[in-house]
Amino acid sequence: MHGISLDRYDLAILSVLQKNSALTNSELGERVSLSPSQCSRRKARLEAEGVIKGYSARLDANSLGFGLRAITRVNLKAHGESMDDDFVTLLTKHAMVREAYSVSGDADYVLHVIAKDLTEFSDFIHHHLLPHPNVTQVRSEIILRSMKEEQGLPMPK
Amino acid sequence: MHGISLDRYDLAILSVLQKNSALTNSELGERVSLSPSQCSRRKARLEAEGVIKGYSARLDANSLGFGLRAITRVNLKAHGESMDDDFVTLLTKHAMVREAYSVSGDADYVLHVIAKDLTEFSDFIHHHLLPHPNVTQVRSEIILRSMKEEQGLPMPK
DNA sequence: CCAAATAGCGCACAGCTTGTGCGCAACTGG
DNA sequence: CCAGTTGCGCACAAGCTGTGCGCTATTTGG
Question: Could you tell me the CA-to-CA distances from A25 to A6, A38, B59 in Å, in that order?
Answer without folding.
Answer: 19, 9, 18
